[in-house]
Amino acid sequence: TDAISEATLAAAYAAGVRCFDTSPWYGLGLSERRYGHHLHNHPAREYTLSTKVGRLLTATRGALQKTMWQEPSPFHYRYDYSADGTRRSVEDSLNRLGVSQLDVVFIHDLSPDNEKDLGMPWEQRFAEAAKGAMPALTRMREEGLIKAWGFGVNRPEPALRAIDEADPDIFLLACQYSLLDHEQALHETFPRIAAHGASVVVGSPLLAGYLAGRERYLYDGTVPAWAPDKRAKVQAVCDRHGVDLRTAALQFADAPAVVSAVIPGARTPEQVLANVASMSVAIPAAFWAELKQEQLIAADAPVPAA
């Protein structure tokens, strides 16, 4: 609801959170309007705001498309990674958010895992973005309309290809680096992004709640066959050292030097405060050492200082 959203954002700001991420896709514009309503109370220089491009919204009086959102705005969406579509999307977001500049814009969901909704192979959409969205965002960065751009995706392929073909600044990588599953990102994706001079925002560090005790893994909810046993083994190490699993997961995701922020997601003020509190807990070095000894995390995985 609007009231819970406002209370959650207020709790986050009061607790010192200054990184806010949204998208036209979230609630079909509803999330951006809610963010704008709250952030209007604070100077833009005090926070970092990111949103996304790739879907254009148009008002409709007809039946809405089926989405995951419970009470979306009355808009249809269509994919558009062209230059004109990207600029229109940015301008629409500026209006919904009530700001004159965006800190970061991510090209959203242009990824192999989203091909069904994209309506074609992701490489075809990427070719559209390479000619349209990517140079358009570079121009907007030069104009000062945005400060940085990159990709917000659930798979590494688009991010790595973007590095080869353009000059992105930052990537929002969801579902790719967590306490349970991090080898590919740690050894392949992150080094290439760091070598390019870009940074990473880690999305879904709790695997959509799985590392907070929920029986739901990432966005489709299906728990991989290997995950319960590994989570139980990590939990056992947590119990021996008196460490909260969710706290360990958040701090682990934030540890690599290439990571500039983590977005755990929070739906209530209580979740916000729990996330903030977790980031200030001192986890003993022996805990991380045992995880490595038991081969539950990579031997070379960065971990927080004790």
Instruction: Please estimate the helix content.
Output: 40-55%
The CATH architecture is Alpha-Beta Barrel
Shape: globular
The helix-strand sequence is HEHEEEHEHHHEHEHEHHEHH
Spatially, the strands of the biggest sheet line up as 1-2-5-6-7-8-9
The amount of beta strand, in percent, is 15-25%
Please identify the structural class as seen in this structure: alpha/beta
In total, the number of strands is 9
Rounded mean pLDDT score: 95
Structure overview:
The protein is of the alpha/beta class. The protein has one domain: NADP-dependent oxidoreductase domain (TIM Barrel), CATH 3.20.20. It is 42% helix and 16% strand. The protein is built from 12 helices and 9 strands. The protein has helices spanning 2-14, 30-39, 83-97, 115-118, 122-131, 133-143, 157-165, 183-196, 227-241, 245-254, 269-278, 285-293, and strands spanning 19-21, 48-53, 55-59, 75-79, 102-108, 146-153, 170-174, 199-203, 259-263. The strands form 2 sheets. The chain has a 7-stranded parallel sheet with strand order 1-2-5-6-7-8-9, with helices on one face. A two-stranded antiparallel ribbon has the order 3-4. Helix 7 links the parallel strand 6 (146-153) and strand 7. Helix 1 (2-14) packs across helix 2 (30-39) and helix 3 (83-97) crosses helix 6 (133-143). The protein starts with a helix and ends in a 13-residue tail after the last helix. The model has no long low-confidence stretch (mean pLDDT 95).
